[in-house]
Amino acid sequence: MLAKSFALSLACAAIASAESSAAPSFTASVAPAAETVASDATPANVALFETEKVQLTDNVISDLQANPGIAEYAALFEFEDSSNSKLRTRARRVRKSLRCKTMPGDLLYPSKMVWGVFDLLLGGALEKIVPIGSPCYKKSEYNNYNAEKCASLVANYNQEEIYYEDNGALMNPLYYGMTCPIPASGNFASGTCTQGGYSEYAVKISNVAQIQLAVNMARSLNLRLVVRNTGHDYNGRSVGKGALSVWTHGLKDIQYVERYKSSSYSGPVFKVGAGVQGFELYQAADKYGHSAVAGICPTVGVYGGYSAGGGHSPLMQLFGVGSDQVVALEVVTANGRFVTATPTVNSDLYWALLGGGGGTFGIVTSAVVKVHRKVPVTVSQWTLMTSETVSADAFWEAFKFFYDNFPTYNAAKTYSYFSLMKLAPGTYMWSMGPFFATDKTVEEYEALIKPFYEKCESLGIKLNANTTHYDSFYPAYQATFGGLDYFVGGAGATPGNRILPTENWATKDIRNQTFAAVRNAVENALMLNMYHQHAADQEKKDVNSVNPAFRNEQSMIVAINLVPQENAAGWKAAVENLNTNILGPLRRVTPAGGSYGNEADIAEPDWQQAFWGKNYPRLLKIKKQVDPTGLFYVHHGVGSEDWVVDDKGIVGVQSTDGPLCRA
Ligand SMILES: Cc1cc2nc3c(=O)[nH]c(=O)nc-3n(C[C@H](O)[C@H](O)[C@H](O)COP(=O)(O)OP(=O)(O)OC[C@H]3O[C@@H](n4cnc5c(N)ncnc54)[C@H](O)[C@@H]3O)c2cc1C
Ligand SMILES: *[C@@H]1O[C@H](CO)[C@@H](O)[C@H](O)[C@H]1NC(C)=O
Ligand SMILES: *[C@@H]1O[C@H](CO)[C@@H](O)[C@H](O)[C@H]1NC(C)=O
């Protein structure tokens, strides 16, 4: 009883009453807790989707308070700014007195009863997250061993789909702590499967009210909250131990508006749900004879992490980066309210949401995005390898010539993605996959690339490039990027990246020094995935918070380092080696460069500067304004220096597998 009265004195009464009371009785009018608002007009100038008209409003809260069966729980779902509740004040005090977010097993963690009430109010959208690998384990609390399911997971572990269709999985699994990995072969795994750093519960979102209920409950009860879309995140930022997860993947609406007009933009737009993935956006644009901006990987979510973190694209040289496409957003903020953000309405929030990173400033439900003209493309692919006829010197001389010409290729508004690998000492491979020459005929492309072809010829290199023209973007994309293997699901390698700025091509000297660091990276890494890319200038400066280095780049390098053995010591060594021997020299030679936060090294040093440069102080100020209680936390996100996750070094690098506490 002592423990109980202690809890009572700390926790809000709703938790305590849930411990004791019998099942609450509901009237039809409170479950689910939502109303369909009458007006669909918003300052975004495109009507709300049906999913967005279903909201948690002050009326709904009043109904909860007035309903005898539910009144005692109502406070859990109140807005941060609502006027009356003593309980709300108490919740704030509880939050302040507790250093850590409340975890499963903690005295103040909601009881089954509270989760049951929450699920009723959600209309049955609450799901327990069970680790994706669990069907492979005979030993686990989930009791779901299934040899057939396990074999299928083993066969498909590198397919993005099994992760984005799951309610809680990560494509880069290392960062939840590897407590339930899919085994490499067979149909079972030895060992015990546990939840680790995966979130605890998911709300499978199909309307805005559900997001508001989750936000308000997590804030009132001091729960860890995360936002998850596809699970593509490189640093585990869409999961968290003990967290309540808002899963936006189901928000799939796409609506075309031919003549859009706002104070910042006129022209065709799509209004797109936050769950829309790259391939869905590309298909929709193609259907209307247009093109739109998303990433190279078809399954990345466009309006979750991608646009929030910048977003590079095979069309960025024509239309700007992902963040630049967004003219308005609908978003649930940390106080539970549903608001619109545009360059003129909630303009700070708009600025921060586009560049400041996912899962940090609010939960986006939809975006109004620019749609562009049809774009013809010439694509070219080749593979160059050292061989009896191609010496390592010739290989590097050819590649250096290509590299020196990045500013020329960028000025011609083209893009490329390729890999560089050391196969064995002195043996190298360069796979161009593809050079993406937008707005170019084959002749125009060949005129641009001719000096490089001639260089190869002079070195006795036969390139055998395969060059094809497409009269629009989507088929060109499908024939190239759309079919690539993106190597998800494994933990045998760790990535990090560096943005190489224009300055590093300014003189022969600095080009040489930079190139030496690139070559060193090839020598030491498993592989480099590299781009020549440069975003089209935007009409207005500082229209959003995208990393200034990202706008000033000529190239980006994603370095992938091999993990010597898959255990904590191996992962730790791999990340240290990545930082010391691979990215270290690249960082030192690019002081005006930075790092792309969406494909980041888990241990990026000086990350505030690397991801945001001069934008960081303003981002931090906005973060404190829009999320004063610290509801939204992601690893290396804006404001995350106030928090620590003590994972006891389970995988040797920072994972989500520990309590989230104030630093
Ligand atoms: C195979 C692969 C290929 C990639 N290719 C590219 C590329 O070509 N170009 C590029 O720029 N990037 C690329 N990326 C990186 C990609 O941009 C990031 O992983 C991005 O964060 C993914 O966003 P998501 O919403 O799909 O993923 P998630 O892992 O679900 O979420 C990522 C982050 O966004 C937050 N978030 C998700 N939904 C919302 C929401 N509705 N509101 C607010 N926050 C939200 C999450 O909390 C998390 O912090 C690639 C990644 C992978 C794994
Ligand atoms: C050439 O490239 C195209 C993609 O643009 C591809 O479909 C085709 O199969 C390639 N041809 C050869 C011979 O590799
Ligand atoms: C750059 O490197 C090339 C090849 O390594 C070398 O021939 C040239 O002299 C170097 N130039 C400068 C300015 O260092």
Key descriptive features of the protein:
663 residues, alpha+beta, Vanillyl-alcohol Oxidase, Chain A, domain 3, 23 helices, globular, binds flavin-adenine dinucleotide
Task: Summarize the topology.
Elements: H1 2-10, H2 13-20, E1 35-36, H3 50-53, E2 54-55, H4 58-66, H5 71-74, H6 86-97, H7 112-122, E3 126-128, E4 137-140, H8 147-156, H9 160-164, E5 189-193, E6 201-204, H10 208-220, E7 225-228, E8 244-247, E9 254-261, E10 266-273, H11 278-287, H12 302-308, H13 316-319, E11 326-332, E12 338-341, H14 347-353, E13 363-370, E14 377-385, H15 392-404, H16 406-411, E15 415-424, E16 427-438, H17 442-458, E17 466-470, H18 473-479, E18 493-501, H19 508-524, E19 527-532, H20 548-551, E20 553-562, H21 568-589, H22 607-612, H23 616-626, E21 643-645, E22 660-662
The structure holds flavin-adenine dinucleotide (FAD) and 2-acetamido-2-deoxy-beta-D-glucopyranose (2 copies).
One 2-acetamido-2-deoxy-beta-D-glucopyranose (NAG) is lined by residues 508-509, 512.
What does this molecule look like?
With 663 residues, the protein is of the alpha+beta class. A hairpin with a 5-residue loop joins strand 11 (326-332) and strand 12 (338-341). It has a domain at 377-614: Vanillyl-alcohol Oxidase, Chain A, domain 3, CATH 3.40.462. The protein is built from 23 helices and 22 strands. The strands form six sheets. Strands 17-14-16-15-19-20-18 form a seven-stranded antiparallel beta sheet. Bound molecules: flavin-adenine dinucleotide and 2-acetamido-2-deoxy-beta-D-glucopyranose (2 copies). Residues 171, 226-234, 237-238, 248, 274, 295-297, 300-301, 304-306, 308-309, 311-312, 358-359, 363-364, 486, 488, 598-599, 634 line the site of flavin-adenine dinucleotide.
